[in-house]
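User: tokens in, sequence out, please.
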């Protein structure tokens, strides 16, 4: 799929946590984007007469081609997040896409295990919704790690999906809990506790690159074959 320049408008802005917002963009011209779960778009950020480009994973599923949802963390002094934090419903934006090859391995003759930290959950939200839309019957695992419970993105949505779809296993993990009654520690520990057989699993990692590399190393130490671990280097 070749990348295309899209003119869009902000349909909605959601507060996902104290420093993360979700932006739902309605595509105007062209009016729809054909993409695969796991791909990303380039946001064109106007700055001082120039354009700064930033890559963001698509957090919405491919079966909703008229809209693109982005999950953006605020970075103090960051050109893109400073721009985005001023956006409101109705504002115009420019994006290009789709880009990237962080895709689900086909055919789906395995159980996908998604392991995310922070805004790295965005492509997995797209993948999970895509697989559930396809009525995949194999177990779908989402292990989501954050420092604090108030940083769990899309928490109520994932819990709701897990409640109505028996094969979606959502397991959040908090490393520095305050009032938390779920898994505590790091997602590597959660993986070790809940994933006892990796022979029918494919592991997908996304988050800060340093964390992803550390998790990758730990998984190898747990005996997960390297060819079953997938991640995209930004």
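Assistant: Sequence out:
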């Amino acid at each position: 799929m070749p990348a295309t320049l899209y003119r869009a408008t902000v349909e909605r802005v959601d507060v996902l946590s104290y420093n993360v917002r979700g932006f739902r963009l309605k595509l105007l011209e062209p009016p729809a984007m054909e993409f695969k779960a796991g791909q990303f778009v380039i946001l064109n950020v106007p700055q001082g007469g120039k354009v700064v480009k930033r890559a963001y994973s698509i957090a919405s599923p491919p079966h909703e081609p008229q809209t693109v949802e982005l999950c953006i963390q605020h970075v103090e002094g960051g050109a893109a997040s400073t721009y985005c934090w001023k956006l409101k419903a109705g504002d115009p934006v420019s994006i290009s896409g789709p880009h990237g090859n962080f895709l689900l391995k086909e055919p789906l003759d395995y159980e996908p295990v998604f392991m995310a930290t922070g805004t790295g959950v965005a492509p997995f939200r797209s993948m999970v919704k895509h697989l559930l839309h396809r009525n995949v019957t194999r177990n779908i695992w989402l292990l989501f790690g954050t420092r604090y419970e108030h940083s769990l993105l899309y928490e109520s949505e994932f819990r709701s999906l897990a409640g109505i779809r028996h094969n979606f296993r959502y397991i959040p993990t908090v490393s520095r809990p305050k009032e938390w009654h779920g898994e505590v520690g790091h997602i590597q520990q959660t993986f070790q506790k809940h994933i006892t057989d990796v022979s029918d699993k494919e592991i997908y990692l996304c988050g800060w690159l340093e964390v992803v590399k550390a998790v990758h190393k730990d998984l190898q130490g747990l005996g997960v074959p390297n060819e079953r671990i997938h991640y995209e280097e930004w």
